[in-house]
Amino acid sequence: MSRPATSPSATPPAERAPLPDVLRGLALLGILCVNAQDFAGYAEWTQHGVDWGAQIVIDLLLNGKFISVFAMLFGAGAFTLLERGSRGLLLRRLAVLLVVGTLHYVLVWHGDIIANYAVVGVALVLLEQARPRLLVLVGVLSGVGWVLSFVGSVGGLVGSRRLPEVVSAGQSSLDILSARAHQVLPALGSVVGFDGFWLLALFCFGGALYRSGVLWWPEQHRPALKWLLALGLGVGLPLNLLLAFFNTQSAYSAEVWGLLARLVGGLGLALAYIGGVGLLTASGKLGGLTWFAASGRLALSNYLAQSLIMTTVFYPYGLNLYGHWGAFRALLLALALGLAQVWASNLYLRRFSTGPAEWLIRKLVYGWR
User: Fold this and answer.
1) Region 247-268: what's the mean pLDDT?
2) Alpha-carbon torsion 94, 98, 99, 101, what sign?
3) What is the model's pLDDT at position 10?
4) Does residue 299 fall inside a structural domain?
5) Cβ within 8 Å of residue 192, ≥6 positions away
6) How many CB atoms lie within 10 A of CB 60?
7) Helices and strands (H and E) in the chain: how many
8) Is residue 281's pLDDT more than 70?
9) Phi and psi of 48, rounded to 5°?
């Protein structure tokens, strides 16, 4: 399996490694299930019955895990661009993504991650020639630095986190857009200031996975994948059990340490997921998971579509269900929408080679010729 050709056109399916696309498709589904809480407006861990059970599933298996997988794959993609066209190509793409993410925040949903990734991703140009071991070292140092700063000033850091968007039945779409337009720059600065070093760590880990060949040739890296699986489970499972416990507590300290457990434990299980799916890929046993490769190839289009559909369902200018659904129904809707996107993506790629958002980004980055 060769790496993609250095061309502005979409990479042909025959030249694509399946593992990154499958992981990206799975990550999109997991992220949607977690984001359903914000879209639906239900209060975390105030649920009962099946809603309480759904919250446990989200915390133990999804929350913080798939967003970490997605961020690592973003880092892998950034280093792909550095190899294709050096710093200029990456910086152009990041500039375009910053604009797209900002518009997504203002016009659709306040939970955008694209702009955050674009801003933090600029730091990767300083690591253009870095080898896998250096990237791992920088990632570890960046992650440890974030943890130490978190522990040293938890009050200020937790206070800088972006709060869930609260909408009411009387709000018009113009009211919501106006509020977001005033919040977009402060929110971007707050989230990047809080998560910047953590995101950089994830980007570096993803770059190391790319440059070591683990993502492209998993069959040649079975020992590394087994190590990721074992390390991820050993770190991730205990921390995610702690996360579930902290989220049942009402004390401020529980919120603080729950956030730390979510991020670090999320990274642990994210590595385990990469290791597990990588071993299945290496053994040719992906089975039905291969369907997720299509949604992974259309990641940006699917991500934007998720926001459009979910806000239409829950916000006042749509079906106005915000605050009326609990965790269970919101999770079922997210699973249904995410799996429908997997099916639709496979159908779409039978005729087209790239998604509409991916096509637009490519034209803006490489030019219209």
Assistant:
1) 82
2) positive
3) 54
4) yes
5) 116, 119, 120, 199
6) 17
7) 13, 0
8) yes
9) -135, 160
> DSSP label at 122?
G
Q: Mean pLDDT lowest for which of 39-43, 213-217, 345-349?
A: 39-43
User: What is the C-alpha to C-alpha distance for residues 99 and 114, in angstroms, rounded to an integer?
Assistant: 9
- The whole-angstrom separation of Cα 53 and Cα 105 is 31
Residue tagged 């069959």 (tokens): 219
Residue pLDDT, tens place only, 85-125: 779 999 999 999 999 999 999 999 999 999 999 999 999 99
pTM of the full structure = 0.92
Across the chain, mean pLDDT equals 89
* Chain mean position to CA 104: 15
Q: What is the dihedral of CA 263, 265, 266, 267, to 10 degrees?
A: 90
- 156 pLDDT band, cuts 50/70/90, is very low
What range does the domain containing 191 cover?
13-366
Rounded distance, CA 140 to CA 145, Å?
A: 8
Between helix 66-107 and helix 173-211 the angle, nearest 10°, is 150
| Residue 350 covered by a domain | yes
For the chain, the domain total comes to 1
Structure token pair of residue 105: 């925040």
Average pLDDT rounded to a whole number, residues 31-44: 92
Q: Would you say 204 and 136 are in contact if contact means Cβ atoms under 8 Å apart?
A: yes
* Cα-only R_g, the chain: 20
Q: Is the pLDDT higher at 61 or at 157?
A: 61
CA pair distance 114, 97, nearest whole angstrom? 6
| Residue 8 located in a structural domain | no
Could you give the CA distance from residue 21 to residue 9 in angstroms, rounded to a whole number? 17
Alpha-carbon distances, residue 163 vs 132, 257, 294, 343 (angstroms): 36, 17, 33, 33
The answer as to whether 302 is a domain residue is yes
